[in-house]
């Protein structure tokens, strides 16, 4: 149940080395910056005169360029896009800022014009291909576009209409002051080609009508002359020339792509680094000669970070504090640290929330209890094996999902062996399959023992949940909730009193239920008075803050809610046993249906369909029910999920 130990790292250094230090810290990817400033004003005055400086400034050229870092990154993106390159963060930084700028200038001088020309030629080819395609679909071969352009009192348009809109234009023939000629069909686009000739004085009227029909103008450039065949020939010649030009330009732009990728990556990395440094610098505290940086770092990385700073300068002071020394107001970020078995379940825990730094990490407890719940409710060697194999298949595409399915499948197989169940067939159908409790109290025919085992399991895991909640509260010095609260020590005693009252009523223990009822009443009274009791223990006054009447009304409602919650908590775990019974019962229904069939093929088909439904539908329901028990019955006892995620400063990766 580990959370990585963090320390507050305060760095005071000379401004002359600020850029170099920040460069090293960003590249280290170990620092979660903290801009709360804490006691930095004190540090500023303390070390202002201690650390000497030369007041070195960046060169004027570099300073001016850095002010336009976003434009430079845009230039890199454009040149990379033109070369079909996706810029990536380079592992090793090989270029200084000015060197990166010079390399970018070289790329632009050498390739920018070619990239622009290639882009234009590609658009032109696309346009010519469309023109050629439409011309091929026109069946009126005697159309002369040169003569149409030379009409003195008329204008013409060629264009496309969808098959649906053809009906609309037919209905409006009598209302159109134009000659409308259907000249062909573009079958793959499901569009009809029309030639429309109209008097110039009706231009606006015609355009309005065509617009209402989603008219797509088909414009043949003026450089193509003559009849349909001549225009088609000229278009094909232009298309061939354009295709050759694209081929020549592509050879220049896309050649030696691996080397270009490496250079682009180095330029991009340097510019991204400079942008990140600028962003950090704008948030740091500066004195006359120094700057101060606050960050949270993993305790184990302290020496590594200091070595990075030492490689740049010896003019610095580092002050570190543990999370405890930083005080209660400090909020360290959380890094979860779990072994390989538990780690995949961090993703499910974080759907609820991230543990705060001083909280117990619920991941190991969640992983064990969730896998146990799933195995109990869905125990089957064959069906569990299917989940396990699906998990193995998913490892490359989604490792977390694959790992979780493998673990759930493994527990399902283990409990399937315990139950003696293979693809729903029980031990009496498979005499060669051993059952750990053959004919015992957990046989599927013994319903009540199985349900009671579910409740017993619930009491056990809820007890651990209460303990975790108590420890979390006491860690934060919260006596009110840790001792007197509904999820504290008194709350747990109340919960166990309810359970023991029920047990004694059934005669399972030789004690009167009135003893436990008395304890229940006493603990409820203590929970109602939790605030005054806490203040009394701490020696604080007044014992009740605010209106006394309002406090007691609110506390009584909270006590009622506690009673209802405690009753429902344990009862909720009946569903663990219920789903175990449901799993066996559901397959039994399919087994009975299969036995009603005389055809062996139909028998097998029903059993296969039954297993598929159980694997998909019931498997999903069991997963959701297990998650519900964790989130609502258990997490509510001990897990707030209000942690701050650890976000180390690093360069973004595309």
Please describe the topology of this protein.
Blueprint: E1 2-3, E2 6-14, H1 18-28, E3 32-33, H2 40-47, H3 60-66, H4 69-82, H5 97-137, H6 145-149, E4 154-162, H7 163-171, E5 179-186, E6 191-199, H8 203-212, E7 216-217, H9 228-254, H10 257-281, E8 285-286, E9 290-298, H11 302-310, E10 316-322, E11 336-337, H12 346-352, H13 363-377, H14 381-394, H15 399-419, H16 447-475, H17 479-484, H18 489-505, H19 513-528, H20 530-538, H21 548-572, H22 574-595, H23 600-638
Antiparallel strand pairs: 1-11, 2-9, 2-10, 3-9, 4-6, 4-7, 5-6, 8-9
Helix pairs in contact: 1-10, 4-5, 4-10, 5-9, 5-10, 13-15, 13-23, 14-15, 16-18, 16-21, 16-22, 16-23, 18-19, 18-21, 19-21, 22-23
